[in-house]
Amino acid sequence: MVTTALNTTKSEEIFSAAQKLMPGGVSSPVRAFKSVGGQPIVFDRVKGSRVWDVDGNEYIDYVGTWGPAICGHANDEVNAALRETLEKGTSFGAPCLKENILAEMVINAVPSIEMVRFVNSGTEACMSVLRLMRAFTGREKIIKFEGCYHGHADMFLVQAGSGVATLGLPDSPGVPKTTTAATLTAPYNDLEAVKKLFAENPGEIAGVILEPVVGNSGFVVPDAGFLEGLRELTQEHDALLVFDEVMTGFRISYGGAQEKFGVTPDLTTLGKVIGGGLPVGAYGGRKEIMSMVAPAGPMYQAGTLSGNPLAMTAGIKTLELLQRPGTYEKLEVMTKRLTDGLLEIARNAGHQVTGGNISGMFGMFFTEGPVRNYEDAKKADLSKFSRYHRGMLEQGIYLAPSQFEAGFTSLAHTDEDIDQTLAAAKIVLNSIAAD
Ligand code: KE4
Questions:
Q1: Where in the chain is the domain with CATH 3.90.1150.10?
Q2: How many whole angstroms from 203 Cα to the centroid of ligand 1?
């Protein structure tokens, strides 16, 4: 194993102090590097495709603050727009024109959305959309898929992906059994299992929620016909189909997975990219359904900072940049070169790997595959992933610190970044014992 010892003195000092102040020393569990070992890198600044830690080490970044930095970190045009808005105040707690502007951009982009409500995170969007599913149908049960993650609201912490999978948690203590009793689960890509749940719970299922491309078990794509099958099944049972596009929205295409795959759900959740690095989530869908949301209708949901002008500004400018010609072609070509290159290098080094990309979202598992669901993903060699992650870090490549997370590129990544990353992978993957 090639190790070029990184000087991480300051990171270690700061993280050690952080652990006395905050649980696990982090504001979100997956950042703690628990599943890949070693200390997390403490960031000092970010720009474009690069991040610098507090010890001055520079890395090419493929996490992109978990998706929002699709235009590259600290984009000059986004920052300029933010500085201008700042002069007029960061939050009003009252209607502002920028909400109309971002709402119109979202409605014009996402096929399922005729009306939208802004919130402050993907978790809030998913929590609210679940309440809306139940309010609209009058039914309580929902179907989610093993390995999908829809934020940390109680009812979703059942066989969830992302940090829950990363930490190998048996769901979570503190979640009442009565809450999750109404959450039914099925393996991803298993239409028969969904049909069975509908048959066993006639007239009781409010709807099905899923990641249309899973980023929270690693990178898992829908089988041909899976999304179409769910669309038919939910219609057949008067249930709602909900795409959680917090990660895929504006990431795998400007109109998200629903545009890419041509399947229109009833409701959609968004986050990450639409905030451009500031806290924004959203849920939206048919007017008939969204009209139930207070104060238009009886379903209550609220938020002090929802739709604040500063966050709206970052979202508006980010989507404006993404509308420019060639955006998604560039992301696709560059990310495919990266992913194909990583897979080829790994296989030539004797490792069993599988993976792929859609636009600027990608993943690689240390298992022969195929990986069609969470059970398959769990066959990956986590110990090998940890050595790969650490090796790449020492080569100046910052990857998501979990086999159960997707990776992200940005419009700021260059061909040289990809070349440098593949060169690093060649060193690291040839230094790790093959299968
Ligand atoms: P947030 O509450 O973290 O903004 O969004 C929750 C969420 C909902 N739905 C999907 C598909 C998501 O991917 C997420 C959040 N994703 C994780 C990373 N996989 C956020 C990173 C973290 O938890 O620190």
A1: 9-74+326-433
A2: 31
Q: Give me the pLDDT at residue 1, please.
A: 41
- Of 244, 266, 381, 417, which is the active-site residue? 244
Q: What percent of the chain has pLDDT over 70?
A: 98
Taking alpha carbons only, the member of 213, 275, 276 closest to residue 248 is 213
* Rounded Cα gap, residues 374 and 97, in angstroms: 43
What is the overall mean pLDDT for the chain? 96
The matching CATH number, chosen from 3.40.50.720, 3.90.1150.10, 3.40.50.410, 3.40.640.10, for 76-322 is 3.40.640.10
What distances in angstroms separate CA 395 from CA 24, 349, 427, 428, one per listed residue? 26, 17, 9, 8
Choose the residue to mutate in 118, 272, 374 for probing ligand 1, maximizing ligand atoms within 8 Å of C-beta. Answer: 272
**Which entry of 98, 272, 384, 426 is annotated as an active-site residue?**
272
Catalytic site residue 272?
A: yes
Q: What is the DSSP string of 263-290?
A: ---SEEEE-GGGGBTB--EEEEE-HHHH
Distance CA 290, CA 284 (A): 7
Residue 409 predicted with pLDDT over 70: yes
Q: Residue with the nearest Cα to atom 21 of ligand 1?
A: 66
403, 380 contact by CB (below 8 A): yes
What per-residue confidence (pLDDT) applies to 314? 98
Q: What does the pLDDT look like over 248-265, one tens digit per residue?
A: 999 999 999 999 999 999
pLDDT at 363: 98
Cβ pair 395, 4 in contact under 8 A: yes
Q: State pLDDT tens for residues 100-157.
A: 999 999 999 999 999 999 999 999 999 999 999 999 999 999 999 999 999 999 999 9
Q: Which of 66, 250, 258 to mutate to test the pocket of ligand 1 (most atoms within 8 A of CB)?
A: 66
| 44 included as an active-site residue | no
Nearest-atom index, ligand 1, CA of 216: 19
- The CATH number corresponding to 9-74+326-433 among 3.40.50.300, 3.40.50.1860, 3.90.1150.10, 3.40.50.720 equals 3.90.1150.10
**pTM beyond cutoff 0.90:** yes
Pocket residues: Cβ below 6 A from ligand 1: 28, 30, 66, 121-123, 126, 149-151, 162-163, 211, 215-216, 244, 246-247, 271, 281, 405
Q: Residue 427's pLDDT is what? A: 98
